[in-house]
Queue: 2 jobs
Job 1
Amino acid sequence: MMVDWIAVDWGTTNLRAFAMQGAAVVAQAMSDEGMGRLDRDGFEPALLRLIAPWLTEGKVTDVVACGMVGSRQGWHEAPYRAVPCAPLDPGSLVAAPTRDGRIRVRLVPGLKQAQPADVMRGEETQIAGTLSLLPGFDGVICLPGTHSKWAHLSAGEVVSFQTFMTGEMFALLSQASVLRHGMQGEGWEDAAFDAGVADALARPERIGAKLFGIRAEGLISGLSVAAARARLSGLLIGMELAAARPYWLGQAVVIVGSEGISGSYARALKTLGVEARLVTGGDAVLAGLAATRAKVNA
Amino acid sequence: MMVDWIAVDWGTTNLRAFAMQGAAVVAQAMSDEGMGRLDRDGFEPALLRLIAPWLTEGKVTDVVACGMVGSRQGWHEAPYRAVPCAPLDPGSLVAAPTRDGRIRVRLVPGLKQAQPADVMRGEETQIAGTLSLLPGFDGVICLPGTHSKWAHLSAGEVVSFQTFMTGEMFALLSQASVLRHGMQGEGWEDAAFDAGVADALARPERIGAKLFGIRAEGLISGLSVAAARARLSGLLIGMELAAARPYWLGQAVVIVGSEGISGSYARALKTLGVEARLVTGGDAVLAGLAATRAKVNA
């Protein structure tokens, strides 16, 4: 197997590696050795456990990695670049120290914004990939997730961005708060999701009250698990959309993420008259890493 | 020691018992055997471990208990009463089954509201106690806590109420979310609290964005732990006040709770032109249980 270079998406919880020929994936591997489980000396061995079969003795293979691997708690810090700027700058890649002579590892830096204070790490690569997949795109990219991001793109630059804790709030509230009592199980009700979105958008200041209402309805009128989960998701996404209005209003919107969550965001945006295009998160990160690699070698 | 009756405040995490003569406390005891740690058969033994020294062989001592002990997961269910109604109704006390002949245990039911769906259990006793401490009070009672309550009182009845998950959200976000990284330690900055309150009240729909800003400022401009904790508290209390506006606007407000959290709410309300009176939560629950006991015996 001829491996040209290796693309790595290394977040807090997962490590994904791709053996590449140009922009094509020829093999891939994944482990749960995310940044959160590793100390500084653990990164190179964790990577080698995945990619060793792709390496050739006597040859140096380039590795380009994005995500939390470049944070202060990661393998080596790749300092944030300040917006407005292009999402990727090949000249700003930071070399990670290695012992194994068969690899040369470079880390993609994240982006920061001074006012309002914000940071991203990993999403800049997805944004670059989206620009590579949709050349000339101007508008807004929404990246739903644990920490959802909205980024305003113009002339190939990230002009501004904003992070929302929507995914983490859903996880905490549904698994660790009093609401968990009515959320054990499966199921989903679109109507409850839609009502949650509409409710949060109409009266966003009442979110704190609406949340406990899910528990109270479970106790006194038997709200189903499916309706409770969908309403919680709708309320939180609706609140995010209320705050992100300056981003999506009158803009071309692309949602970058996994199918399920992107579909929920698209559904909610549609009620606001916004027809979003969808790009798969995995495609975006690979396209971003490939674009970076291509520019480094250009 | 002459013990007339025993007052019990039994929540999810703590059990507090008071040996009473009329409305006066002659002894007290506390344990961490809250409802959350007990199964149905565990309640009577847990209570006896605390109150046995106050019991007399051959005599039946009355016990009046409020809080989660009366929930479906408690000792015995005391079904919710529907508002509008007086916070306490001696005729609605529910007897708990006991094996020990020295005690007769009665549980105070909570309150429910059909629309918007809401429930309380324990706070109804604090509200009754507040009315007993402030006879003739008409207005609004705010009970900050894990699940803050706002109740509208008129002519001795709870007309409506609303629960907010403010305290639980603070605990989850400061201890279990990404924000915890900037919140390990002590300290408090009043100015950061005030700014959080003002921010949330001015733009409540932006709370989801403001929260991650705490983390981002910690990363890129070194926000202190004291400022981060106080700002998070201010944002969450400000969001609660934004939603509770119909409760406090133009009303006489009494805050019932522990000194620290009540002080924060009073400070925030003062910026809105509301001068709240403070009642200690412990005083309120004891006064409520004593008022109940007095009416049962009348």
Job 2
Amino acid sequence: MDDGRPGEFELIRRYFAPLAKDPGSLGLTDDAAVLTPRPGVDLVLTKDMLAADVHFFADDAPEAIAAKALRVNLSDLAAKGARPRGYLMGLALPADWTEGWVARFCNGLAADQQAYGVHLLGGDTIRSSNGLQVSITAIGEVDTGKAVRRSGARPGDILFVSGTIGDAAAGLHARLDPDFSRVHDLTQDEERHILNRYLLPRPRTGLAGPVTGFATAAMDISDGLIADSAHMARASGVGLSIDLSKVPLSGALQRLKMNARHEFMRCFNGGDDYEILASVSKDKAAAFQKAAAAAGCPVTEVGLVEEGSGTVRLHDAGQSLDLSTGGGFRHF
Amino acid sequence: MDDGRPGEFELIRRYFAPLAKDPGSLGLTDDAAVLTPRPGVDLVLTKDMLAADVHFFADDAPEAIAAKALRVNLSDLAAKGARPRGYLMGLALPADWTEGWVARFCNGLAADQQAYGVHLLGGDTIRSSNGLQVSITAIGEVDTGKAVRRSGARPGDILFVSGTIGDAAAGLHARLDPDFSRVHDLTQDEERHILNRYLLPRPRTGLAGPVTGFATAAMDISDGLIADSAHMARASGVGLSIDLSKVPLSGALQRLKMNARHEFMRCFNGGDDYEILASVSKDKAAAFQKAAAAAGCPVTEVGLVEEGSGTVRLHDAGQSLDLSTGGGFRHF
């Protein structure tokens, strides 16, 4: 190109083609990817779109932006019990993109491809009308009929979550307010932890097996535990009861819970957790917990499925909490 | 929402869910779509991303923007010989979006879903950091092993194109320059034709069958006939020879060719045609042409595949033309 930056085909050759190891990608030299489905599997398809200054900061490390764009999709696959197979990526580059930025972005993808066993299958690169946008469609595989939906929770089931809740939202607040950690007395380690959880989701791909093996319903937590519990409750036509005192919290969130209750609830409901919420029938609960721990993704019992019609009750060691003040995070 | 516009879930319920008739979409109420592949088929996956003021004008009719975003993907499927099955859509809405705009956009999708037999499977709606962007991933099916690639053209094959070439690029120029039609003496009908071809690509989905039945290589023409011929020539390791006097032209382009040779070449190479370029072995050429006509997408012989290494020769009734001046359209 006149400005010395590589054109689209040169970008593909230098940076994207090395990410496309699946023969179905046709080396990114064709109009489309061609996949031969393995016999006995369903394909699980998910698409998340991320925009600068909405889902990440434009000056975040390019490697981290790439990882986040891929991981939020892998999180959706894990929640359905699907093993990642590949992804297509649409990349809208702002006017001032540089080759160095693209190189680092692709390094981030390469590292995650290796970590999660997934390959680039195809995509499109365009000039953005303004800021950077990344649109990834991820494709996973699950044994035929075994995809786990949001709609299968039944009264009597036990509710589990993976990891800890609220860290990413706290990390976002710490990012936006340089005084956040000082005001709330967080240690350096605690601050580092929450900032990192905002920057880099950790999709619980290890839970795909335990989820298909044992869960009656599952979803990933992106809008906040309470908001997403309501989604599951509505899809399943049940009520969910969550005991806040059982929800696993990092050191940072425990400190917030003690010292700044309002701030805590804001983070707790803030979303971007990318943990798994799953319901499991009582007789399989112990086996689920054991399988999850064995997969390196321990899960914690946080509540129960009850009769109901899409309602969520939150209580803290027996005391009812008012949910009207804390909505989930809106990505839109 | 505070501003009276529907939130994401309300948008899904009112506008997107009615487009999601395939049971695999799970009514758009889950994290992902689940598809059970039909036995004996490969899946063809393609992703094109369109941005306001890059691929369309922000003030184009919302129905037309929707149609274009879907159709450019259907064109890729047709070029591989795949029948459309469904699509996922990422929609990044600008700050000033209105519910009426979304309603019209979805009307455009609904009309094309009916026309092309395809359904919405899933997606994501986000706030754009600036202008409207639409990212569609389309999924098609083709009998196992039958997807047609760019790389199969062999010396001796005959080259065909569908439709006419150069109209969309001329339509773009007419859009950008209100004097274009007057200066080039186009009739009102001719002007209407080129404007419409820019606004609304016509994916040659009817050619999917003839392409898998007879073509050795195929692709859709989005970067311009010459630029895309070069892509096919490189992928196939051959040379292509195109006879401009045989390339089908609309009345508008014929007039440009006669009266304004430079402008003609600019449109001819301008891209956005979304016609099919296919190579067919000599002994199947007549059958291909017959099958295409029967499918309602007549094709025209425009040249030959020769020995070569990625080269394209353009001549006009025997006279060699210099290609160094006319590159394809860059979407990036």
